Amino acid sequence: MRKVNIGDLKARLSAHLQLVRKGEEVLVCDRNRPMARIIPITSDEYSAQERRLIAKGVMIPPRRKRKASDPWPEPAGNIPDKVMKEVWRREREGR
Predict the structure, then answer these.
(1) Cα(32)–Cα(36) distance, integer angstroms
(2) Which of 9, 40, 82, 87 is 20 to 30 A from 51 in CA distance terms?
């Protein structure tokens, strides 16, 4: 990750954006205090709806793609299967 102060970013914006295009992140600092990060995005891998959400700041794309060999994280919580089955049963009855 490249660290750059605002003045340098303004003076050499094209050069820094070129680094982002190549996949590097740029950390923008105000007097050496981090305040923003410019990260690469490849819009062709996202649907039109996802691109709109990203542009609005509602959705944040992952920093890197998940490898197929990476395990999925364990879900939060420690709820026994018996309890979850009862919750699902009650939910289906209420429909």
Answers:
(1) 12
(2) 9
Which residues lie below 8 Å from residue 26, measured CB to CB, with a gap of 6+? 1, 2, 3, 4, 9, 16, 19, 20, 37, 38
Token digits for 57?
A: 């700041």
Q: Give the pLDDT confidence of 21-79 residue by residue, as tens digits.
A: 888 899 999 999 999 999 887 667 788 888 888 878 888 887 777 788 888 888 778 88
Residues 6+ apart with CB under 8 A from 22: 40
> Which sign, positive or negative, has the C-alpha torsion 25, 34, 15, 44?
positive
